[in-house]
Design goal:
One of its GO terms (cellular component) is extracellular region. The protein is mostly beta strands and about 575 residues long. The chain is built from 5 helices and 32 strands. The N and C termini lie far apart (about 65 Å).
């Protein structure tokens, strides 16, 4: 074929494919009512935030290129609502990201808000509340985006199942938030969860007599049962919406092959159990190749914090075995909770699949070095980034920036780095005091940005916590992990530029660092924060702005709070 005709042929093929995709794309309509209902997910009855009476909420199914429309009515009576579509990049629709204070005003009690967005990338995702600490109360669920017809994934399976992991408290999120905001010795930590849930089901020990109605025979808390046919192969889409806990997920007697992370194909590797952090999603391949005359445990265990919560369990049920027959062994207890190297090594094992590598830019235009520390502000315990503890404004940033409302948030930019040479990450902060601010990082549109997430010792000696960080509106390349303090001179030379995985959520290990790179090419305002609910509530987050001037007029229905009220 003459070279001159190849570009024309390519254009014809591309245009034809695009036309076919548009013809095949569907619009999926959902109608949700958000309300409080009494639920017993771990056998103890308590109020939960539900979607159409359910927690977790219904799974959203779509195919890459489809549009999802969700009509949300807030029937909570006394609480606002906003729902974030975690992992959906919202290209061209930043006002649909569902982040109160950043991209929209909250949905007031009695009001209805319609979310409408394109799912542009196949994969496993989640949705959850993004108002206060509401996610912890039960407003969450999964999003499954299938590949288009004719696309061949780099693995095969016979059937698939989704598994949503969560932690659960009996006290309300109001109580938790109030305790976190108290000064000095009145400060009350949320504590370890009472139960771990697998697809919304757990088992609290009713004999502990903690008060309230606890019924161990309630069908709502019967263990989740995953039925498999002997000899078949299954794709398990696993997601974590925990509010605090890092988890280790294991299926007794079966190995798991990791094949997808946050919507991107992984160079497959086999694990006995999977470490999964809040906000992360994975696909693993399970082969039903063990003794088919018995059932096996599904087990969820807390790691990286000293566990105060029993193992969360479900049942892998081999078809033909009585469904009510419990496994004969004790549930797996997982790795040692404080084995940081075990978890670190699993993190560094995740690389892009050889056939699906999207190479990162060879260098960045800007490096932002973020030190995570625990501090006090006016006697109140807070988390800070470069000694600045984050607050959300009353007027969402997207609305304020587009309408030049410069008075609604602090205009002085937050610091790009900290005193790298002298700060000792291995001891509590010498100066525990920090400041509070709602200022944001303004990025040059189209630029390449490196972010270094640096962990440190908390206010308690010999203690450093695990932090999963989630970036809205983007996927980023994970360039590297390290233990100790990041060295700006030497550590970038060890970056993985060959086959880094793309993700939207990444962990920072205790006393360690994580380096990511992304393109600031999605016009909007995007939150970047620790996905532990209480940590973000206490200030561990920042916000990026990029290319807002390229957006058209914002829809009126996202307004109505702060300076965006009618008449202001």
């Amino acid at each position: 074929m003459p070279l001159a005709t190849r570009p024309l042929l390519f254009f014809i093929i591309f245009a034809s494919s695009l036309l076919i995709a548009r013809v095949q794309a569907k619009v999926h309509h959902h109608k949700w009512e958000i309300s409080y209902q009494f639920k017993s997910p771990d056998c103890l009855k308590k109020l939960a935030v539900t979607i159409n009476g359910q927690t977790p909420g219904p799974t959203i199914y779509a195919t890459e290129g489809d549009t999802v429309v969700i009509e949300v009515k807030n029937s909570l009576l006394t609480e606002n609502v906003a729902i974030h579509w975690h992992g959906i990049r919202q290209i061209g629709t930043p006002w649909m990201d569902g982040t109160e204070g950043v991209t929209q005003c909250p949905i007031l009690p009695g009001d209805t808000f319609v979310y409408r967005f394109l799912v542009d990338q196949a994969g496993t995702y989640i949705y959850h509340a993004h108002y206060g600490m509401q996610r912890s109360a039960g407003l969450n669920g999964m999003i499954v985006v299938k590949v288009p017809d004719g696309f061949k994934e780099p693995f095969t399976y016979d059937h698939e199942h989704s598994i949503l992991l969560n932690d659960w408290w009996h006290n309300s999120t109001y109580e938790q938030a109030a305790g976190l905001a108290l000064p000095g010795k009145q400060f009350t930590w949320v504590g370890e969860p009472h139960s771990l849930l697998i697809n919304g089901r757990g088992k609290f020990n009713c004999s502990l007599n903690v008060g309230g109605t606890c019924n161990s025979t309630n069908p709502e808390c019967a263990p989740y049962m995953l039925t498999v046919v002997p000899g078949k192969t299954y794709r398990l889409r696993i997601a974590s919406v925990t509010s605090l806990s890092a988890l280790n997920f294991e299926i007794e007697g079966h190995s798991l092959t990791v094949v997808e992370a946050d919507g991107h194909y992984v160079d497959p590797f086999v694990v006995k159990n999977l470490n999964i952090y809040s906000g992360e999603t994975y696909s693993v391949i399970l082969k039903a190749d063990q003794d088919p005359t018995r059932n096996y445990w599904l087990a969820s265990n807390v790691v990286s914090r000293k566990p105060g919560t029993p193992t969360g369990t479900g049942i892998l049920h081999y078809y033909g075995v009585p469904r009510g027959r419990l496994p004969t062994n004790a549930p797996p207890v997982g790795p040692l909770w404080n084995d940081t190297m075990y978890r670190f090594n699993q993190s560094v094992a995740i690389h892009a699949h050889p056939s699906f590598i999207e190479s990162p830019p060879s260098k960045s235009d800007r490096m932002i070095n973020l030190l995570n520390t625990q501090n006090r502000v006016n006697g109140v315990m807070r988390w800070s980034i470069n000694n600045v503890s984050f607050d959300l404004p009353h007027t969402p940033y997207l609305i304020a920036l587009k309408n030049n409302l410069n008075n609604v948030f602090e205009q002085r930019p937050p610091p790009d780095t900290y005193d790298v040479k002298s700060y000792d990450i291995f001891i509590p902060p010498v100066n525990p005091n920090a400041t509070r601010s709602n200022s944001i990082y303004k990025l040059e549109y189209g630029s390449v940005v490196d972010v270094i997430l640096q962990n440190a010792n908390t206010l308690t000696a010999n203690n450093s916590e695990t932090h999963p960080w989630h970036l809205h509106g983007h996927d980023f390349w994970v360039l590297g992990y390290g233990l100790g303090k990041f060295d700006p001179a030497s550590d970038p030379k060890r970056y993985n530029l060959k086959n880094p995985i793309l993700k939207n959520t990444v962990v920072v290990h205790p006393l360690g660092w994580t380096a990511i790179r992304f393109k600031a090419d999605n016009p909007g305002v995007w939150a970047f924060h620790c996905h532990i609910e209480s940590h973000f509530f206490m200030g561990m987050g920042i916000v990026f702005e990029e290319g807002v001037e390229k957006l058209g007029q914002l829809p009126k229905f996202i307004m109505g709070c702060g300076e965006s009220k009618l008449g202001n």
